[in-house]
Amino acid sequence: MPRYRYRALNEAGSVVKGEATALHEADLQAQLRASGLTPIRYSVVRSLVWRSGKLPQRELINLLFHMQVLLRAGVPIIDALADLRDGADSTDLRQVAAALIDRIHSGSTLADAMAADPGIFSEVMVHLVRSGELTGQLAEVLEELVRSLKWQSELAAQTKKLLMYPSFVLVTISGVVVFLMVYLVPQLVAFIRNMGETIPLQTRLLIWLSEAFVNFWWLILPAPVALVMGLAVAARASEQVRFALHQALLRLPLVGPVIKKIILARITDSFALMYRTGIPVIDALGYCERITGNLPIQQALERARARIANGTPISDAFATEDLFPSLVVRMLRVGEATGRLDEALANVSYFFTRDIDEAIGRVQALIEPVLTVTLGLVLGWIMLAVLGPIYDTISKIRT
């Protein structure tokens, strides 16, 4: 829905400037006339948020936090949004707030106004806000949403940190190998061939690799990128390929268990938040399925939800699936027994978060020795392949 900037005359004949969201120009004119304004000139506001339908995570947190604080202070939601529209530093945030105000003025609830921008406000967020409006606990729901979004942002940063170090190691080792094969080894190989001695197997293998890099670097260097892009296209086209890739990701040494805990931490936190705000268990698990990017875990959640719908206790439904650790099952059982399922799930999320921090620290501590050992093995093999024939020649000269 486009955003318009307009100039209009009010009933007193004064010029009024403003912005409004409308379906089209006729809708804008109708809105202005309904407000007692006569349009003079208007134009579409061009902004990145309306082209992409996205809002940066930090700005979204600021929006929800601002509404939550002012609602707790007794400020009406329209006034809270108007304060953002008039005073926010971010142009995108001002436009989102203005769009929400326009929809609420047109008779929509806050949840319905947010649902009109699915690229900014997720389905889970909309249902949580609607639950808060129905129960009269909108400020509390917004507070929980702010906490959850901050936590998820930190979790995403941890995930990036976890994946960046192995990627750095791989790129560094690849760069060193390419430099050795393209620049250094050819110079040493020319010297070895001029000696006229029989070349051993490891040296012939080194020469073959070096010549392959020199002659076919244009094919070898783009190969990893082409492989990744090919897998991405295959994953989009085939659910079986996507399932296999996601399953392989969970089974990676060191990194896989941490990624699994990150996914489960997000699921349990979201499940606890929705259960706490009164969303039924079946619906909450359905939303958790949609926010889970990993296909094996998503299908496990789907099977567990089907069992619960058929009358199986929540803990038993999750215990049937091997992907869910015993800690999750035990805490679900405790939550069912005590009637505090949300607290039990929050404890699981807290435990996983703490374990994730420790695991990422261990992975980072292993990066340096792994890099050192790998580079040492590569350099050792190259030195053995190069210096071996030279040493044999020197030995024959002495004898």
Structural commentary:
This protein is mainly α and 399 residues long. It has 3 domains: 3-46; 54-149, Type II secretion system (T2SS), domain F (Receptor-associated Protein, Up-down Bundle), CATH 1.20.81.30; 151-399, Up-down Bundle (Receptor-associated Protein), CATH 1.20.81. Helices cover 76% and strands 5% of the residues. The protein is built from 17 helices and 3 strands. It has helices at residues 25-34, 48-52, 57-72, 77-87, 91-105, 110-115, 123-135, 138-194, 201-220, 223-237, 239-250, 255-276, 281-291, 295-309, 314-319, 326-338, 341-398, and strands at 3-9, 15-21, 38-44. The protein has a 3-stranded antiparallel beta sheet. A hairpin with a 5-residue loop joins strand 1 (3-9) and strand 2. Helix 4 runs antiparallel to helix 5 (91-105). The longest helix is centred in the last third of the chain and has 58 residues, at 341-398.
CATH topology of the largest domain: Receptor-associated Protein
Shape: extended
Helix content class: over 70%
Number of helices: 17
Give the name of the CATH architecture of the largest domain.
Up-down Bundle
Computed CA radius of gyration, to the nearest angstrom: 30 Å
Main sheet characteristics:
3 strands, antiparallel
User: In whole angstroms, how far apart are the ends?
Assistant: 89 Å
Give the uncertain stretches in residue-range form.
47-52
Strand numbers in spatial order across the main sheet: 2-1-3
Following the backbone from N to C, one meets helices and strands in this order, namely EEHEHHHHHHHHHHHHHHHH
Mean pLDDT value? 82
Strand content is: 5-15%
